[in-house]
Specification:
The chain has 301 residues and is of the alpha+beta class. It folds into 2 domains: 80 residues, Gyrase A, domain 2 (2-Layer Sandwich), CATH 3.30.1360.40; 203 residues, Cyclophilin-like (Cyclophilin). Helices cover 30% and strands 27% of the residues. Strand 6 and strand 7 form a beta hairpin. The relative contact order is 0.15.
Length: 301
């Protein structure tokens, strides 16, 4: 993709998806800056409430818009999207009204451990657990140091997808500190619901039980998808995570895990969260300092 001489970012590529969809690729590779650009453009389009726009779906380095072609011609939409893209520019000064969320996770839980051990023949290193393998290839001295890195800094939800409600989480740390791990050589045919996994540069919480190829590290006691909308956090949507959310994964022991599960079962559980204005410039310029501020908003430290 060619680069824009003014912003230094790639030129967007606009394509049609049948009669009802316009797909826009902002870059061939994911980065925080490109993802901020996708959020800025789609947020602006959503605010404009354009007649004929039926759905807007931001992604890691792209976005898609569904339209009613009888109301809005795709070429007219593309023309406006190009204008918005130019107005957004390099996303300098972009602010995102969002929320920061505490997400409990039990690392090395017995359920995901049982699942991953069933499929060692599909793994790069059948003699190691997923955590041990991931720690080693990322240069950590121990799996405990690796876990500390995963739980130490917050994560940005860059998109929702693959299966309904699954959040893609990208850690807000400098590029040289980003964790990267490959997916399994061959995918598993079973992954527990709420499993905490990692693949490429993204952490996820599996919203439903099913197949999967991400490395498995733990299990979240609380759901990210609630089709019956029993819990307060799901009153407005069956999906809890939203693009732009900032999540802090927090390790819990068996006792707290069980307490949270009991709250989920009786309908009383609610995620700890706080409203927050995310300043993208500060996140890019000094992520460590900004992360301390983010965690202070959530935990009051």
């Amino acid at each position: 993709m060619n680069a824009n001489v003014e912003t230094g970012l790639p030129e967007a590529r606009y394509t049609y998806g049948g009669d009802e969809f316009v797909f826009v690729e902002l870059a061939e590779a994911m980065s925080l800056k490109v993802n901020f650009r996708a959020m800025a453009i789609t947020n602006r389009l959503r605010e404009e409430n354009v007649e004929g726009v039926m759905d807007i779906c931001p992604s890691n380095a792209s976005y898609m818009v569904r339209i009613d072609p009888d109301v809005l011609h795709p070429d007219r939409l593309i023309s406006r999207l190009k204008e918005i893209d130019e107005e957004v520019g390099d996303v300098k000064g972009f602010e995102l009204r969002t929320r920061v969320v505490d997400v409990p996770v039990m690392m090395e839980d017995p359920w995901t451990h049982e699942a991953l051990m069933r499929f060692r023949d599909r793994h790069q290193d059948p003699e190691a657990t997923d955590l041990e393998y991931s720690a080693r290839i990322n240069g950590y001295d121990s799996k405990d140091d690796f876990i500390a890195a995963l739980l130490g800094s917050p994560w940005l939800i860059t998109m929702i997808g693959f299966v309904p409600g699954l959040p893609w989480c990208y850690q807000l740390v400098p590029p040289e500190e980003q964790v990267e791990v490959p997916k399994y050589v061959r995918p598993r045919t079973f992954t527990p619901e709420r499993a905490f996994g990692f693949g490429g540069g993204f952490a996820v919480v599996y919203s439903v039980q099913g197949a999967g190829g991400y490395q498995l590290y733990g299990l979240a006691p609380a759901p990210v998808l609630d089709v019956k909308q029993r819990l307060k956090d799901f009153e407005d949507s069956i999906v809890f995570p939203k693009p732009g959310d900032v999540w802090k994964y927090r390790g819990v022991n068996q006792e707290e895990f069980d307490e949270i599960r009991a709250g989920v079962e009786d309908g009383s559980f609610e995620y700890k969260k706080a409203d927050f204005t995310f300043h993208t410039d500060r996140a890019l310029e000094d992520p460590h300092a900004y992360n301390k501020e983010i965690l202070g908003v959530l935990y009051g430290d």
